[in-house]
């Protein structure tokens, strides 16, 4: 079992609960944030091994948060997987060009999510 830390970022408590349920059996240490601003603070403070980031959120969207994470020397190496309802090709392309490591669409396919997490973490 892994003891890697994952920061879950979404403004929907339902999505955060689903992600927690999917990942609970894998031994990850999970922490949450409700928007991009909170995610930046938690990422710098807690130094997670990976971040799952929603795209559309209040206060600071996921793309802006990813850009800030990659511009900060303390968080620039943390991989970020976007988890969003936005499946359009231009959104996927924009996410990757702004520093996302991977992209998962909602509704979340648990096997797809876990496979991408393991890939990003080198497991």
Notes on the protein architecture:
Helices cover about 45% and strands about 20% of the residues. The chain is of the alpha/beta class. It has a five-stranded parallel β-sheet with strand order 2-1-3-4-5, with helices on both faces. Helix 2 packs parallel to helix 3. The model has no long low-confidence stretch (mean pLDDT about 95).
List the keywords.
123 residues, alpha/beta, 5-stranded parallel beta sheet, 5 helices
Layout of strands and helices, then pairs:
Elements: E1 5-9, H1 13-23, E2 29-33, H2 36-46, E3 50-53, H3 62-71, E4 80-84, H4 89-97, E5 102-105, H5 110-121
Helix pairs in contact: 2-3
Report mean pLDDT, rounded to a whole number.
94
Global outline: globular
Roughly how much helix do the residues carry, as a percent range? 40-55%
Largest sheet: 5 strands, parallel
Strand order of the largest sheet: 2-1-3-4-5
The number of distinct helices, counting runs of at least 4 residues, comes to 5
In short:
The chain has 123 residues and is an alpha/beta fold. It is built from five helices and five strands. The protein is globular.
